[in-house]
Amino acid sequence: MKIRADVLRTYTDVHTWVGIVGGLALFVAFYAGAITMFEEPLRRWASPPVALPAAVALERAPELIDAVLERHPEAARAYAVHYRIDPDTPARVSWEDEADVRYGAAFDAHGQLVTARTDEAPVAQLIDVLHQQVGLPFEHEISMPIMGVIALLYGVALVSGVIVLLPTLVQDLFAWRLGRNLKRLWLDVHNALGVFSLPFHVVMALTAVVFAFHDGFYATQNALIYEHRLDSMWGREPSQAAPDAELLTPQQLAARMAQQAPGFTPVAVEFRQNPAGVTTARVIGYDAREMMRAPTYGLASLDPYTGRFTDTAYLPGHQPGWEKLVTSFFTLHFGSFGGAPVRWGYFLLGLAGAFLFYSGNLIWVEARRRRQRRQDGGVLPPQKRSSRVMAALTVGVCLGCVSGISVTIAAAKWLPGRVQDLEAAHTYIYYAVFLACTGWALLRGAARAAFELLMLSAGATLLIPATSLAAALFAAAPGWNWPGTARLVDVVAFAGALLFVALAVRTRRRTLHGDADSVWSLSRPDPSSAPAGARAPHASV
Amino acid sequence: MNAPPAAPLSARHWFGKVSAAVVLGYTFSIGLSGLFAWHGPGGIDAGSGKVQFNMWMLAPLWVAVLSVCFLFRSGLRAWLWLTAANVLVFGLLLGTRALDG
Hints:
The complex is a heterodimer.
Chain A: H1 5-36, H2 39-46, H3 61-71, E1 78-82, E2 93-96, E3 102-107, E4 113-117, H4 123-132, H5 140-165, H6 169-173, H7 182-196, H8 198-224, H9 250-260, E5 265-273, E6 279-286, E7 298-302, E8 309-311, H10 321-334, H11 340-367, H12 385-410, H13 422-444, H14 446-473, H15 486-513
Antiparallel strand pairs in A: 1-2, 1-5, 2-3, 3-4, 5-6, 6-7, 7-8
Helix pairs in contact in A: 1-4, 1-5, 1-11, 1-12, 2-4, 2-15, 5-8, 7-11, 8-10, 11-12, 12-13, 12-14, 13-14, 14-15
Chain B: H1 14-39, H2 48-56, H3 58-68, H4 75-100
Helix pairs in contact in B: 1-2, 1-3, 1-4
């Protein structure tokens, strides 16, 4: 396809600059986002054992509810019955108090009520927040608009990248020129990755714009096109019969669910009481054959007195047309359709996305490389300061994110019982590691830091299975182990650690034996060759 | 934008073009979503699902304007063309609303 040369040049510049501004934040978003594909196994992995007797059988849930409501009347406002008993939902009945502390209930051997805190392990949520806020440590209200701007840049980067590639698409796409020209090689990889995962990236960019700005979008539409009628356009609360009947039991509700929505696996049912004393119910669960509105579940609102659906706007496979269309946007972002194969696919696409941004930065650095020339007498020129800083930042931010996430995940088995505020502890650990790595890379230069931080990433990621192994082998070690999908966390982390070691070894080889005229080389430039007006090269680079 | 002896396009004067796309591209997208909301399938009373869809439309529209704004030959032209586009789309919206009564 033919495109005017000046248009191509314009979009090449646009692509370069939006990429360099947004790239590092997008790396964090994609690496953390890839890990959120395993949010549920990770939460299970990180859930400490709870001091509760074995979960009460589902048939006895009504008894347990009565006992809870007698002792804790405040739970009547909202409580849940769990169909699925797991390390992260160990009790049959749970509720939250005014301070959002979650409690679970069970019966002891004598039939007496026992309750205990069953708060969610916060580490999976922390990684989700890192993902949503592209790694920014600010309040949600501040981070989200910044993320939105990054998402807009990302959208422009996709369009400009495609425009730049179009004229040579056919020649370049399947050509990986594995030669001496490293910039060409990185560009080929970057292009192929970008084109083949383009639909994924278009989805991510556009949905992220909406996730960042939806409140503002609605407010503007309300003022400019809805004539301030938006509040009345959301539809009415579903009406429900007056509570002159008995509530159905959770078991009966599950049976009614199965009749009306076969294929939907209920995980929990939440009961809420409105001020008029009417109880409403929402059944939460999943259906791997359908799209789900939330990252890991869909839900149905139903009348707990009759078991009839009152609202199926979020029920997989039972959504009205427009809701289903909108759910397709959510589900394409979350990978919450098609079950485990899609999650694995999204995990790999997410990591590939992180690599896309990483390789974009490498191309930027490579394009600004000062080459050693024979006509200059072969002296080694100093590299530009901007290249050195960007290379160091790329290494520090990306590997700082990797190491920080790994350390804070591993800490999930060390912190419970040792600190009060788990969430704050996880956050401090992440940012401490992240900032230390970034500082280290700026201090040491990209060539040294790349190897060192890759080894650190490997070690940090190895902490995850090592902690689990220690808990399995030594009674005195902190931590615990759960069967099932939680083991996946250890296996994936172990594979990740091996990958980082392999990358570290290759990186070391390049810094020692690769081209000397590069920010990635440990060879010292000849100080006498510094061009007039350029700063003297940093001693360590 | 097809006068032949034009200076070649470049990304240098990006601020005028991008600011036009941020502000007027946004309102233009809002206007288009308004046309869809009132006159698209199901009309204005199609329920909360369509209200959500109308909002979702803004992301691709806004990103599209932000992406093509670099093709304007100057920031001034970007502001003028996008003003015209806004006048057109909001004129259509207000006009059709007035006709509907």
